[in-house]
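Re: the 235-residue chain
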Amino acid sequence: MKHIFHPANERGHNKFSWLDSYHSFSFGHYYDEKKVHFGALRVLNDDLVAPGGGFGTHPHDNMEIVSIPLSGALEHRDSMSSHGIIKSGDVQIMSAGTGISHSEFNHSQSEEVRFLQIWVFPRRRQLKPRYDQKTFEFATGKWQVVVDPEGENGVGIMQDSWFSLFETTEISDANYQMHKSGNGVYFFVLEGHVKVEELELGRRDAAGFWETDNVQINAKAGSRILAIEVPMELP
C-alpha cells in the first residue's frame, strides 16, 4: 500500500471580493509540482461564494466536473440549456466532453454557498457533453455512493470512478473497499476526525491510498468523509 497526506493548512488559497477558495491540487495561480493530480483526480476546490456572487459563463472540455454543495444553494446554467439549483444533499455532474460553456452562481442574495468542485479526467476524450443531478437521503454509519460509472446509484460519470460519502453520529468503522482493482482512493474529511490506516486526519485534511484493495478507517462521532476513487493511470 502506498499513500500521500495533504494537510488542510497546506492547500492553495485564493480570495477576492465574492470568492474564498482552497485548492487541494494545483489550480489557477496556485502551483505545486507534487500536487498536480491524484491519478485521474485533477481538481478538488473547496469554494465559499458570497451572496449573489458566482462564476460567469466560461468554457470547459474533456473533463468530468462534479459539484457537491455543503451549504446554501448553487445555480447552474449551461450551453445545453440545462438549468438547476442544487443544495446540500444534491450532487451535480457535467461531462464537458467536446466542449460546453456554463455558469455557476450563488442562488441567494443573502446567504453564502459553500460547495466542492471536483474535476476528473474522462476515460476518453471528445465524448458527447451531458448533465445530470440527483438528490440523496443519507443514512449514518455507511458509505453512500453519489457518483458511479453507470449512474446506477449516483450520477453517472464517464470514468471508472466512484464518489462516496460517509457520516456518523457515533464512533464507527468506515473501512473502504475498492470498487475496481488498480484504482486509488482519495479521502477528504469534511468534518470531524478520522484515523485512516495510521494517519490521523482532521477537518479538511486529505489522504490518498493506492496499491491496495481495502483501507481501514475509524471515524469519531460527528465525522463526515468524502471518498473519491479513481484510476491511477491517466487515459
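The CA atoms of residues 43 and 109 lie 27 Å apart.
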